[in-house]
Amino acid sequence: MRTLLFSLILAALSIGAAQAQITYGIKTGINLAKVSNLDDQKFNPSYFVTGFVDFPLSNQFSIQPGISLQGKGSTVETTVKPGDASPAGDYKSTLNTMSVEAPINAIYYIPTGSGKTFLSAGPYLGYTISGKVKDSRPDGKETRDISFSGSDKNMNRLDAGLNFSVGYKLYNGFLIQAGYGLGLNDLNASKSNKANSNRTINFGIGFQW
User: Fold this and answer.
1) Percentage above 90 pLDDT, the chain
2) 3-class secondary structure, 124
3) How many angstroms separate the first and last alpha carbons of the chain?
């Protein structure tokens, strides 16, 4: 994955240097996040902000490297009935993480009406800079920081995966998109538990100039 990203960066930079129509853009929007292999999950809402450079290879095809701030995580909700081992009531645990990611996407443009429909796909590398878990139980609430190192480590910082999106860009530069992020790295630091990877649906708007 890292070798592929590095190769795409070099290709984009070398090709882009010869192009006259390099453009820049920014996107922001909502993330609806989960992680794999967890029961009783609901989407955890967060946000993303992405800056990118568009290197055109032809009228319909571009390479877009970028840098992105991504909020992800998960929300698990369960209800314990009277008579079970735990105190009866509602239990909720919310994982919130913030990551810096470097995506490199291949973009295919299709002229449509007053703009272009675009299809996008490519890999990303991510580094989690912060994380918290908020627990709500019948007997109270608790917030704790995620540990990324040491003997109490419970999450891996590094992430990698694939991005997919579809959208529409007007000729004035305004764009809308919907996408999906498929995490491939195991975030769980404990090898005795099931692998947990990011799964993210996103909706955003942006501008490219």
Assistant:
1) 76
2) strand
3) 30
| Cβ count near 193 (within 10 Å) | 11
3-state SS assignment for residue 146: coil
Which pLDDT tens digit goes with each residue over 196-206?
999 999 999 99
Average pLDDT per block of 10 residues along the chain, 209 residues long: 58 51 96 95 97 95 97 94 78 97 98 97 98 93 94 94 98 98 94 90 97
Residue count (the chain): 209
Query: Half-sphere exposure of residue 100, counting CA atoms within 13 Å on the CB side?
Result: 3
Give me the pLDDT at residue 13, please.
Answer: 52
CB-neighbour burial class of residue 150 (10 A; exposed 0-12, middle 13-18, buried 19+): exposed
Nearest to 187 by CA among 205, 170, 199: 199
Listed residue (25, 42, 169, 170) closest to 103, CA to CA: 25
pTM for this prediction: 0.87
| C-beta of residue 47 within 8 angstroms of C-beta of residue 31 | yes
Distances (CA, A) of 83 to 79, 137, 162: 12, 16, 45
**The two three-digit tokens of residue 154, written as one number:** 């419970």
By the 8 A CB rule, do 96 and 71 touch? Answer: yes
What backbone phi and psi angles, to 5 degrees, belong to 16?
Answer: -65, -30
Closest alpha carbon to 156 in 35, 22, 24, 25? 35
Degrees, nearest 5: CA angle 96-69-98: 20
CA distance linking residue 171 with residue 110, whole number of Å = 12
